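[SOLVED] Predicted holo structure with zinc ion

Edit: marking solved, answer below. Original request kept for reference. I posted the sequence and ligand SMILES and asked for the 3D complex as structure tokens.
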Amino acid sequence: MVEGFLPAESQNLGGVATWIAGVPQFGFLGSVKTDGKTAHKIRMFRCIKCGLLESYAPDK
Ligand SMILES: [Zn+2]
């Protein structure tokens, strides 16, 4: 497992939530810097019996 994070602003673009590799670093305006970092779109699965969610961030 490697550390990553979910930038809050990526959730507001009408797209798919994205996982970013590494530790978040912040610009001087307080926004998180994601340029140059590896990004993976998140795929999420839900159990139809109990509602449990599992998330994956595959390479492709
Ligand atoms: Zn279940």
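OP edit: Strands lie at 4-5, 18-21, 25-26, 32-33, 39-41, 43-46, 53-56. Thanks to everyone who chimed in.
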